[in-house]
TrEMBL record:
Matches recorded under InterPro entries: ARM-type_fold, TRPC4AP
Gene transcribed to yield this protein: TRPC4AP
Cellular component GO terms, alphabetical: Cul4A-RING E3 ubiquitin ligase complex; cytosol
GO terms of molecular function: phosphatase binding; ubiquitin-like ligase-substrate adaptor activity
Organism listed in the record: Aotus nancymaae (Ma's night monkey)
Bilayer-crossing regions: none
Protein name: Transient receptor potential cation channel subfamily C member 4 associated protein
UniProt lineage: Eukaryota, Metazoa, Chordata, Craniata, Vertebrata
GO aspect biological process, one term: protein ubiquitination
Length: 797
């Protein structure tokens, strides 16, 4: 009999089972073919009618078919399981049957997740597929949910051991058989019920792993406020359980819609926001609020995030978590890394843990240990890294949510930042050893490596923590705060109020604060490192908002400007993302700062270097426009100051002299308007529109706005496309009004970053959009009638 292809699993290369696949079974000379049975079961599964379970067949019939089909006796076991799992059963026999079924599926799942699955298998259909096809999944769901049924006022109970077996079988079936996880996700009452199984330590790990997989494919986000006794459940978790629970929370508190992605258009995001306003808070927002209402929740997360490796649980507790280790955390690849390191250290240090190879028949799948066994240090570190990844992610999401100020206050109070500072060298940015923990098939520089992911998550947290919030000064220690005060005193300027208000008991301790540590590793980062982008973003967030001379000088004194220029000019960085982050950081560092421009001119001290710098700027204005904006704003301020130091910089700085030329400004203005359109505006490139407005606002201040518009018109004609640029700009400004006049945060950011009142922004846009063709400052005055196209509808449905 010809063998049909193996049932595809949930991993890469998954195929769809079809009638043609089922029909690959051989004929039986006039008798019903096994393929027909499976096809009918598959159709019943899809429609809910006809053959759907093993109980619809006789045991004799199933046994006869099994001889030919090699179903491993699974349908017969399901028949017995159904008979022994009725409401009045004591479940003893039921549990014995589950013990028979479990190894038939677990071996298959282990082979699948450890990538040791053969391309072709002897059996025609995997056991997990047969188990699901004959109704095994639905039967286990019913068994698990028996405690929700009351008989004569008493609820049924099943043992933790039995629940554990059911959960493991369900998870293995989800791993290997397509569509099972999605079907479970559609059973909302079952998903909610699963949370209640996490109250038992014996079933916690299996339950959490299954929930995480289910929520990952669920179309609608679950609401945590529907989970019975959520506060009590979470409060009773130990620290290990809470860390693993954060993997589930990561799915429940992050918006399912990717509208916050920089690549999504602002039109789409605005439409989504309008829809959200009419619907009320999203499920993610409701879930965030539910978590924040749990007493001590954020405090415990902060303790987990800042816990030292030596404070984590010992060998016994960790090995208990490794029971059925192939389901631990993401998948067996993580344990693959753990096992490899453990074996390496075992060879060198005569370590102590021997893991069974995948597929070993050792009872419970637990590794052999001795009484004197010690967990290898690198394994402890990996254990802690995997926990901290999830905890930092949850804290980061909460920091960006609606309750941001509340979360900020709590994580400051619970000393998250000083705690992370103490872990920086030994854990977060520790040096790689020869046996650094890297996932199978990856390398140390791959973003999938736990070490790498922890660093990126740490940098994202710093970015969210510092962005437009006065708590950013907690990234410094007491000596560094005193240094900020001294900088302000020397410059004879008022000290920043947020510095004065900083609670000194909550800042970093030790010789260096977290920001200084970050600068040190940033300057040592290899040119090709993926961290450069995140490091620059984290440091830039510290400078973002109202410009602070003291903050800038603090960073300038530590060589940050020279490092950035080296990366842009001397290393000739090619990564667009890194270049954009460096240009943004350079703009914030130099804005309105005469000393920064002097340092710039000292570093870019030849025409050759300056031309390389300009080449990088002009290679992509989407990436560099924030720097262009900051230099343009600085030039305008310097030109209005009477100061010898400023005059010297104006006369010597190549960059200021370049930007001061009207042809340069017009070239930038023309290209900035030309590279964006309303339909393609994103959070990433909308800065091009605002930079073009800054150039025109400063021209308006000097009563040169009509000149700049006239020059734009001439440039249009020189390109043989009259009207195409100004029509586009008109549409962009109309969108600007819709977008910014209803969003307080964005308008505040524009005002703080430019030191131009938002009322002046609005006035300038209104003047440009004036419909009076006689107005010398109105766009329509420079668009000839035949080319007028200013009333286009750019809204999206």
């Amino acid at each position: 009999m010809a063998s049909a292809p193996a049932a595809a699993g949930s991993g890469a290369g998954r195929g769809r089972r079809s009638a043609a696949t089922v029909a690959a079974w051989g004929g039986w000379g006039g008798r019903p073919r096994p393929g027909n049975i499976l096809l009918q079961l598959r159709q019943g599964q899809l429609t809910g009618r006809g053959l759907v379970r093993a109980v619809q067949f006789t045991e004799t019939f199933l046994t006869e078919r099994d001889k030919q089909s090699k179903w491993s006796g699974i349908p017969q076991l399901l028949l017995k399981l159904h008979a022994t799992s009725h409401l009045h059963s004591d479940f003893v026999e039921c549990q014995n049957i589950l013990k028979e079924i479990s190894p038939l599926l677990s071996m298959e799942a282990m082979a699948f997740v450890t990538e040791e699955r053969k391309l072709t298998q002897e059996t025609t259909y995997p056991n997990t597929y047969i188990f699901d096809l004959f109704g095994g999944v639905d039967l286990l769901v019913e068994i698990l949910m028996r405690p929700t049924i009351s008989i004569r006022g008493q609820k049924l109970k099943i043992s933790d051991e039995m629940s554990k077996d059911c959960l493991s079988i369900l998870y293995n079936t989800c791993v290997c058989t397509e569509g099972v996880t999605k079907r479970l996700a559609e059973k909302n009452d079952f998903v909610i019920f699963l949370f209640t199984l996490m109250t038992s330590k014996k079933t916690f790990l299996q339950t959490a792993t299954l929930i995480e997989d289910i929520l990952g494919v669920k179309k609608e986000m679950i609401r945590l406020d529907e989970v019975p006794n959520l506060s009590s459940l979470v409060s009773n978790f130990d620290q290990q359980q809470l860390a693993n629970f954060c993997r589930i929370l990561a799915v429940t508190i992050s918006e399912m819609d990717t509208g916050n992605d920089d690549k999504h258009t602002l039109l789409a995001k605005n439409a989504q926001q309008k829809k959200s306003l009419s619907l009320g808070p999203s499920a993610a927002e409701i879930n965030q609020a539910a978590l924040l209402s749990i007493p001590g929740f954020v405090e415990r997360l902060c303790k987990l995030a800042t816990r030292k490796v030596s404070e984590s649980t010992g060998t016994a507790s960790f090995l208990q978590e490794l029971e059925e280790w192939y389901t631990w955390l993401d998948n067996a690849l993580v344990l693959d890394a753990l096992m490899r390191v453990a074996n390496e250290e075992s060879e060198h240090n005569q370590a102590s843990i021997v893991f069974p190879p995948p597929g070993a028949s050792e009872e419970n799948g637990l590794p052999h240990t001795s009484a004197r066994t010690q967990l290898p240090q690198s394994m402890k570190i990996m254990h802690e890294i995997m926990y901290k990844l999830e905890v930092l992610y949850v804290l980061c999401v909460l920091l960006m949510g609606r309750q941001r100020n509340q979360v900020h206050r709590m994580i400051a109070e619970f000393k998250l930042i000083p705690g992370l500072n103490n872990l920086f060298d030994k854990l977060i940015w520790r040096k790689h050893s020869a046996s650094s923990l890297v996932l199978h098939g990856h390398n140390q520089n791959c973003d999938c490596s736990p070490d790498i992911t922890l660093k990126i998550q740490f940098l994202r947290l710093l970015q969210s923590f510092s962005d437009h919030h006065e708590n950013k000064y907690l990234l410094l220690n007491n000596q560094e705060l005193n240094e900020l005060s001294a900088i302000s005193l020397k410059a004879n300027i008022p000290e920043v109020e947020a510095v004065l208000n900083t609670d000194r008991s909550l800042v970093c301790d030790g010789k260096r604060g977290l920001l200084t540590r970050l600068l040190q590793v940033m300057k040592k980062e290899p040119a090709e490192s993926s961290f450069r982008f995140w490091q620059a973003r984290a440091v830039e967030s510290f400078l973002r908002g109202t410009t602070s001379y003291a903050d800038q000088m603090f960073l300038l004194k530590r060589g940050l400007l020279e490092h950035i220029l080296y990366c842009i000019v001397d290393s000739e960085c090619k990564s667009r993302d890194v270049l954009q982050s460096y240009f943004d950081l350079l703009g914030e560092l130099m804005k309105f700062n005469v000393d920064a421009f002097k340092r710039f001119n000292k570093y870019i001290n030849t025409d050759a270097k300056f031309q390389v710098f300009l080449k990088q700027i002009n290679s992509s204005l989407v990436d560099s426009n924030m720097l262009v904006r900051c230099v343009t704003l600085s030039l305008d301020r310097f030109e209005n100051q009477v100061d010898m130091k400023v005059a010297e910089v104006l006369s010597e700085c190549r960059l200021l002299a370049y930007i001061a030329q009207v042809p340069t400004q017009m070239s930038f203005l023309f290209r900035l308007i030309n590279i964006i359109h309303v339909q393609t505006l994103t959070q990433e490139n909308v800065s091009c529109l605002n930079t073009s407005l800054v150039i025109l606002m400063l021209a308006r201040r000097k009563e040169r706005l009509p000149l700049y518009l006239r020059l734009l018109q001439r440039m249009e004609h020189s390109k043989k496309y009259p009207g195409f640029l100004l029509n586009n700009f008109h549409n962009l400004l109309r969108f600007w009004q819709q977008h910014y006049l209803h969003k307080d945060k964005d308008s505040t950011c524009l005002e703080n970053s430019s030191c131009i009142s938002f009322s002046y922004w609005k006035e300038t846009v209104s003047i440009l959009l004036n419909p009076d063709r006689q107005s010398p400052s109105a766009l329509v005055s420079y668009i000839e009638e035949p080319y007028m196209d200013i009333d286009r509808d750019f809204t999206e449905e």
